[in-house]
Amino acid sequence: MVSQQSTIRRPVEAGPPGAREPAGQGQADEAGGACPADGRRQVPGLPVRPDLDGILADPDAPSLVFQPIVDLRRGVTAGYEALARFGPDPRNAPHLVFGEADRRGCAAELEARVLRRALAARDHLPDRCFLAVNVFPHLLSSPEVAAVWRGADLSRIVLELNEAVDIERATGLTSTSQELRDHGAFLAMDDVGSGYAGLRQLTHIRPDFVKLDASLVSNIDDDQVKIALTELVGGFASRLNGWVIAEGVERVQELTMLVALGVPLGQGFLLGRPSARWQELDPAVARRIRLLSARSDRSSRIVSLMEPVRISTGDYGRCGQVPGCPPCARSPAPSDDAGSPSPGGRPEEHAEEHAEEHETLRGDGSGGGTAIIVSNRCRPVAVRLAGGAGGRESQRIPTSLFALPDEPVTEVARRAMTRPAGCRFDPVIIVTEMGRPLGLVRMERLMLRLADLSAA
Asked: Do 314 and 385 share a domain, yes or no?
């Protein structure tokens, strides 16, 4: 965890995972109760250790504060994370306290206290919110911690398993995870990207939530590698039916990029600081998120670039009168002299009139002389591009790529760039699910949109 949470979070963050001794090597008593002092003298110049004995002797320690977790599409609070606090003494920063407790073999008792308080706080949660709480995976099956959750109702609780702890330390975690789910809990993998091989751990746990480490979120708007890693983790999580939570969101630019990338949930000082109360999302921040989400939804879909152009039967003769054809469906049926529609559809004499309707239906001037040429079944077969300045003749090229209106811009661009070199920059035809033409997208506009999305 980085700057914003290093003084409030309770996972082990004092240093690399290997820098701490495994649990059980401290001088805990055999009963697993209060942890006596180790009797070592303080070496001058070394940091003062946390007052772990005083903390364990205080029945009210630790206290909890709650940081909002925000829905980055709707701009509402989706949940909170419970964070342990051990008073104002800087020696008792959470990561130092838990690191010392782990070193001395007292971490399970401390974990049990935090989980017990989180369960009590859960009963006062706002509606439609969850409560996340960090736990060390290797302590879930310890007698102290197991006594808290076994037999308890864990609904609306998200247990964040710290990724900085090696999976090998958490023996039997797969079966324990299933038991926790049976009690109603959700599981999250915390700090993904900061420690051990996170993707390997994801395959073991198959979490419901994946929390991106704040080091990946910091300055993500200006780092293509972080963007790629976020997309990788997001894709992996979606295949597991999991949700991504981005931690450490502190800047508007980071928020904008995360929304554009489709990250569903976020947490950080920009969205809300830890508080002893269930704080609501700032209305200004909520409005910004909704605007960013709406803008991202529109700009990231290929239909936002679609140009209305003429639909022409060209030299393929008259239209086959396919009911699902958008031009045909919009064209008014011709009437007989009495004003009633002609039975049996269009008579033969209206073929030329209908062809003209195809030519002019989308001819509002925006497409100029450009047209999509369709077969007699209204399937796009070619594009006629208007001639440019200097009297250049119009150009007719065969269609080479179709896309549905809601396809992402990035996916259409990827497919377009895999076409043969000779047609790689030909227009993309936007069609309905039945293959009927709606309009086209020029590659120049597609490339400019990609640049805008990259710089957003």
From this structure: yes
